[in-house]
């Protein structure tokens, strides 16, 4: 024999080293076996044609598991071309997937069922490959019982690691293993009982224990899955008689026989020895069961002889036949009952199918896609770790249920495998696709499936909800905590979310699934047999999808003409028209979506937008949260919690950039230059369910360290220090902890001190709005230059002294207030501080509210003077004494704010603190008080309900603070020259209305200003116009808070306020001209005369006179070719108690003149060629109205105004004019003549109030009589009261 080469010698040395580690010699039944290595080498030479595979190396099980991280395959005897052909064929169904990479490794080991490594009770029926270093699961397409505990060489295999690298993978045996030693011999003469004789034994009344054990033979017609119930693994097989249709069930549950499941093949004949009979306790069904000594052998007619059963059992066959007939009869009756069900209930078809796995839809839920068109569901079968079911694998399905469209939103036909189905793996995948094993325990999909005995439609809906839930929030809390089941401990967030939904759609009394009847009954019954197509009752999509769908719904069917009344729009100029279209909104509820939409999100707060947000992996949705009792939302402990909201208002603010010349062009969408929107949600906290409570935010700060991003220089000014960013990851808050140590808190601290924290209690006495202020810091981008900082200020009052805590969790009580209650007020001084929030501390803006008690917590700090060291005077001491101005304290980025309680909620022991707060609270006024002439305050705070909001031009005398800087600020969707006008009433039924103007530059941080919402306005500036009207403006020190949300049944946003209700009927004598903001009212009056009348066409662009189709402005020339018609008139009305001048505009002028719509339209068209027509009539002279006596239209209007037909009774809706008439008013209490028919009266009349016409209605005779009688009745009762007084 030739000497081995150096390479062969090295290879043999490595082989001997492998054998010493992994393949020790063992004792055989006939004495010592030959050395395993020599036998292995002999097999290798035989496989390689006498040569050793020097290009391959041995690998142990341990090395394979720990060193091989990617899927791979090894083919010992294949050439390169053979491997390429094999890999190419595997890519046929999935060409985009890469084939398994080839490795040159030799795998040698023992095939075992795991009984020696584990307790026999824990044997799961799986096969393993083991050596001296470890054990690994394996899958084989062909297996023989004599292979167990034998040493094999595996010529072709693939290793598939798990996607979770912390767990081991498994081995797919691609070709039959080569035995290293000779196989064992099998006995050749077995006495058997054929099934035709054995089947009657199952119905015999003789006790099972009295019968002797049998050996039966038959054809395998059905093979049940491996089941594990109560830590007991078993399976059923069904043998059919070789000469008849009789079949019997056999229960296999002994640990040493579970490997039979890998041998059995449908249609093959087998012999099973030592069977006994048993019955189920619940149903009494009988079956054969294997014993410890039972053997499974392939059936061979030459090796068996028939043995009849005991003679004393033969008499039972008659009864068996009758029982079988009864069962068939009952089965036919059951079928008849089922056919009477409603037609909407579908019955699944039972089919067989062979297909290729093309995608794992959800491994945990047991959903696989076959051939890119059929979904295979194994959840009702048994997942059995789903080894081998990788994309590219071929499976054969026998007796599976075909369900078409079980869930309307599910795109595939479903093949459902029940416990009577058989799933056979026909070939392994040749692709490098991962292995995603389903969880054998704590699988929430399967637990909810079996707990509620769900049908396929509900299960698919459950899977879709749970898939989306896991994808959205596992990055925040981890998959394990989200999907935690209540069977082990407290339920996880997913179960809290899903269980109420399932309980709402599943009947109260759900029948438990009887798996034994499902397997053993001759008439098949299972949850997949009948189904009803399901429309999902609800949905919980990602927040990015929510925003997209909401935006689509808001623009769906949208037309600019919807926002304006045609009667108003036709009189608007270009600027006013496009301004009114620039901002609108749309409100959606959960029922606005089909199916109903549930909002889920992690509550966080953004320091960039200073707003609360709901966040998931996909996006963040700003939110406004209120309490139903009107108290503000301040629960800082909820930051980072997972919330579920079903009752909400999803608001889409729509922003349009348009250049419509006039209202006639509103249908032409070419004038829409841009569309943007902003989406946010608002809801009440009482409608929130907390699915997962957050970790303490302070503990997160402890782990990440603490620092200040604002530092003090020697001169007291502020400067910023650079921050070291950490690895990018999803966070519940915006702040990024600084890696520097705080010079005031961190220096030289021990580990015990790092766990401590310093806190200080305070109460908020004033809060200002968020805006750009002149606190200048260096720019973060380049470190050069200066820029204004977004910030807000709050004046607070310290309560007690700073407290040192050994751990942040101890800061739950209020020792500062309790100590004050014992020692008096000496320890609780009135020390005011102006808190400055900027940078990342802006996240606390939504939580700070008046009269709230809060606590600042400085983690990892033991310096009780940390707050005093950071304070500085806002102005130099020589300019203003420190006693009259509070110190300024910049709030550090890593400080935590914790809301404790409200001043009104303090206990009796803490009431002493209220005396210190006396005089510190902000006065809240009422709207009538502010509107009264005697009110003297300049800064006012009040609450009211928004009745209307309108976008208007900025007030000419208002110059918003730092307007230039705000225009450049990102996120503003409105032009800076716009203002928001809010009409606010004191109460829902009150007509006392005040106008509030907010510049567009402030609107970026204001959410929820919608009609119907009740708002608390703080520190607004009260102003009086030149017409003596009171209004308020939002300034730098102002702030707003949402008290309550609008109702969902409000009229369309563009509807005028008060349109839904009819105004009350009043007398002119009851009007008080000095009263501001009179509510809308109605009078039954007589139109006396028309004082002045003006009809004109003006340019839509510059408001000059528009004549003969063009603008009359010449210097500079106006390019507009569009005119807008306008009309106005002053009329005199009286109701018997007094007179009034009424200003009518536009369409109300035609109604006053008694013209029809066609007549009014023709009259205005005639004015277009003239540009303007004006007349004056009555007792007013010198009012500046220019008449053209020769003009036909003027003559027509003059005659019309003098006609007695105009002087008629009308029903007039009005409000007090905020701009009184410039017509000179008569002196008070003048004598006036009144004529009624031929009788003339003289009476004293007071000054005429100026009214603004809102609507004119003609009065029919019946209505006039009724209103007159009501007026006489009210007048009589009023006179009686006066006479009595």
Automatic annotation (TrEMBL):
<keyword id="KW-0238">DNA-binding</keyword>
<feature type="compositionally biased region" description="Polar residues">
    <location>
        <begin position="314"/>
        <end position="331"/>
    </location>
</feature>
<feature type="region of interest" description="Disordered">
    <location>
        <begin position="307"/>
        <end position="341"/>
    </location>
</feature>
<protein>
    <recommendedName>
        <fullName>CST complex subunit CTC1</fullName>
    </recommendedName>
</protein>
<dbReference type="InterPro" id="IPR042617">
    <property type="entry name" value="CTC1-like"/>
</dbReference>
<dbReference type="InterPro" id="IPR029156">
    <property type="entry name" value="CTC1"/>
</dbReference>
<feature type="compositionally biased region" description="Basic and acidic residues">
    <location>
        <begin position="723"/>
        <end position="743"/>
    </location>
</feature>
<comment type="similarity">
    <text>Belongs to the CTC1 family.</text>
</comment>
<dbReference type="GO" id="GO:0045740">
    <property type="term" value="P:positive regulation of DNA replication"/>
</dbReference>
<keyword id="KW-0779">Telomere</keyword>
<feature type="region of interest" description="Disordered">
    <location>
        <begin position="702"/>
        <end position="751"/>
    </location>
</feature>
<keyword id="KW-0158">Chromosome</keyword>
<keyword id="KW-0539">Nucleus</keyword>
<dbReference type="GO" id="GO:1990879">
    <property type="term" value="C:CST complex"/>
</dbReference>
<dbReference type="GO" id="GO:0042162">
    <property type="term" value="F:telomeric DNA binding"/>
</dbReference>
<dbReference type="GO" id="GO:0010833">
    <property type="term" value="P:telomere maintenance via telomere lengthening"/>
</dbReference>
<dbReference type="Pfam" id="PF15489">
    <property type="entry name" value="CTC1"/>
</dbReference>
<dbReference type="GO" id="GO:0003697">
    <property type="term" value="F:single-stranded DNA binding"/>
</dbReference>
